[in-house]
């Protein structure tokens, strides 16, 4: 019995498979097992806390989690909503009114306001010296206008005050100011007349003049000429090349008539000389025949050139109309 007690450890009923680490295991075996656990432990594994966490650790974790959620909320908002949130928080914590944070709109300007301030009826080289972005915007708008005819405002014609402006693209397409009356409140298309007006106006505190054209109906023309009559522009008579060509054969016919008359006078003289003497008649006839040959050659030369003349020099150059000249002839009736 004594031997049996010694084997089982001071008379206890221990087992090698017990759950307690300290019982039934030798010190060497325990050290070996701890060493193996340290080897098998991975770096990202956290150790087992045998004690309760401190209160400061708990509060730090809560603050960190709250900061993450707040940051995600701010990132999801756009700049304007974020600005409103910050302003609202400021008023909530420090007090105040929302009107104190509103921006003043007194100095705000639209593109239309900029154009009205910097527009020019006619741009000069002096106006382009100190160019700002406002002037460049007004200059770009000026380049898009069509400056053949003007649109007039005749509302104060009895005071001899008129308003003129250039046409925009839509008015050119619809024919306003050219095929329709140039008065902005009139749309008549019959009996239009073209007028040339010396437009005197004040711009940027400076007096200027501009010679403009506009087309008006008879009623609006009466309003324009209420105080004194302006200059009316009329279509010039056409001088085409066809008329010049028609005049050339007439000149040739006149030359032929003159040559035939000269031949008749020479024949009469020859008959008179033939009665006086035969010798003088023979000499005069030979001279007259030479003269007649020369006259015939002179009459035939303007009509058609001989074959030898073709080899004397280069062929005459025929002038062809350019596209610009053809357009000018086409638009002669339109632009008076």
Provide a compact summary of the structure:
48% of the residues lie in helices and 13% in strands. With 336 residues, the protein is of the alpha+beta class. A 3-stranded antiparallel sheet has the order 4-3-5. Strands 1-2 form a two-stranded antiparallel ribbon.
Please provide a written account of the structure.
The protein has 336 residues and is an alpha+beta fold. The protein is built from 12 helices and 5 strands. The strands form 2 sheets. Strands 4-3-5 form a 3-stranded antiparallel sheet. A two-stranded antiparallel ribbon has the order 1-2. A hairpin with a 2-residue loop joins strand 3 and strand 4 (206-216). Helix 5 (111-118) packs across helix 6 (133-143). The chain is elongated, with a radius of gyration of 56 Å.
Structural class: alpha+beta
Radius of gyration: 56 Å
Largest sheet, spatial ordering of strands: 4-3-5
Number of strands: 5
Residue stretches low in confidence (pLDDT < 50, at least 5 long) are: 4-10, 276-285, 294-304
Strand content: 5-15%
Q: What is the H-and-E element order?
A: HHHHHHEEHEEHEHHHH
Anisotropy-based shape: elongated
């Amino acid at each position: 019995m004594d031997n049996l007690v010694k084997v089982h450890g001071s008379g206890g009923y221990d087992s090698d498979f017990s759950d307690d680490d300290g019982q039934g295991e030798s010190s060497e075996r325990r050290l070996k097992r701890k060493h193996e656990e340290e080897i098998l432990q991975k770096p990202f594994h956290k150790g087992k806390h045998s004690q309760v966490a401190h209160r400061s650790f708990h509060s730090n974790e809560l603050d960190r989690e709250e900061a993450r959620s707040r940051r995600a909320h701010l990132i999801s908002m756009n700049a304007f909503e974020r600005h409103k949130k910050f302003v609202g928080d400021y008023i909530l914590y420090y007090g105040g009114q929302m009107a104190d944070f509103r921006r003043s709109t007194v100095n705000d300007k639209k593109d239309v306001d900029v154009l009205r301030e910097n527009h020019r009826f006619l741009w000069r080289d002096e106006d382009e010296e100190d160019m700002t972005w406002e002037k460049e915007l007004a200059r770009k708008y000026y380049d898009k206008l069509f400056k053949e005819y003007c649109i007039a405002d005749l509302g104060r014609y009895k005071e001899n005050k008129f308003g003129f402006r250039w046409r925009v693209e839509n008015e050119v397409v619809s024919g306003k100011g050219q095929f329709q009356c140039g008065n902005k409140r009139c749309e008549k298309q019959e009996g239009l007349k073209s007028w040339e007006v010396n437009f005197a106006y004040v711009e940027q505190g400076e007096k200027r003049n501009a010679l403009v054209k506009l087309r008006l109906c008879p009623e609006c023309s009466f309003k324009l000429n209420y105080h004194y009559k302006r200059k009316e522009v009329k279509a010039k008579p056409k001088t085409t090349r066809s008329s010049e060509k028609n005049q050339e054969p007439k000149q040739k016919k006149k030359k032929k008539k003159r040559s035939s008359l000269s031949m008749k006078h020479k024949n009469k003289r020859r008959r008179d000389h033939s009665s006086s003497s035969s010798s003088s008649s023979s000499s005069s006839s030979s001279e007259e025949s030479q003269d007649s040959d020369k006259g015939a050659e002179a009459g035939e030369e303007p009509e058609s050139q001989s074959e030898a003349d073709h080899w004397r020099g280069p062929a005459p150059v025929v002038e062809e109309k350019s596209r610009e000249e053809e357009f000018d002839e086409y638009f002669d009736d339109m632009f008076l």
